[in-house]
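Subject: Protein record for review, amino acid sequence with backbone structure tokens
Why sent: The fold of this protein is of interest and is recorded here as tokens.
Notation: Tokens come from a learned vocabulary of local backbone shapes, not from coordinates.
Attached in line: The record itself begins immediately under this heading.
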Amino acid sequence: MDRFRTMESFVRVVRAGSFTVAASQLGLSRALVSRHIGDLEARLGVRLLNRSTRSLSLTDEGAAYLEFCENVFRDIEANERAIARTRNEPSGTLKILAPKSFGTTHLTDAVITFAKAQPRLRVSLMLENTPYRGAYDFAERGLDLVLCFSTMRNASVVEEKIGLLDWALCAAPDYLARAGKPSVPADLSGHACLVHVDVAPNDSLWRFEGPKGPAQVKVRGAFFSNHALALRKAAVAGLGVTLVPRYCVVDDLAAGRLVPVLPRYRVSARPLIAVYPRAPTTPRKVEAFVDFLRTWIAEQDFQRPTARAAAE
């Protein structure tokens, strides 16, 4: 016999003061409700109800068991309401993994703002450089969301474009004074280039849109890193030409520590992508953060120099 159903029948009988009324409320036969109570007493080994032809009364054991049953039902209802509320109000823990450079310079500000607006939500921001087409085991790592600059092309995850971020081709003035200024993309093949790895399928193939249409060049790497801020630092030190997100060099460009290279050629903006496990229903906490971040990104001007220097 279903233990929960027998407990429910017992509570209904006590509250209704009648097997017949309780059976009607439960949509069961009187005989089945009577059997529930009998099975419950047999399992517990005590009498719960004193029965007469005209009335029912609780034994001491019945009164204690009634209190137990009602506590169980209250706990079940409270937990079900809490679970249902998560569909409308974000709660629990949201664990985000994002690239170090973007997380250090900008994303942390967005996450802090989001966390302040969601007091029922505990937010965890993990910063590491996510590899291109990385195979993330969301369950094993406890991740809810990954932010990256490249598609994973994996049917088990959902990818949503959050916004577009500009990239900049730049170098230090002293490097260009020594090595000369390239005038067309093909000239970069003879320069020392600082290459951002794990961002595109072929990190050393740089693509441009110019006066005569698209152009691409296979560059010769002099320094490689999966951290845009490390490439920024190498470029400022005069190590070579780099292609990095504009947000991490905007202050250097404004201050003249770095200067644009090939200003007549444009580098295509790259998307910031939110990736999360595919499921029949997306958790409300993930939906809320994706919606917030998309709006936050749209309101930012990443080309404007900041009041603080770019993070080292």
Q: What stands out?
A: The chain has three domains: 3-85, 92-165+271-299, 167-268. The chain has a mean pLDDT of 87. The domain at 92-165+271-299 is CATH 3.40.190.10 (D-Maltodextrin-Binding Protein; domain 2).
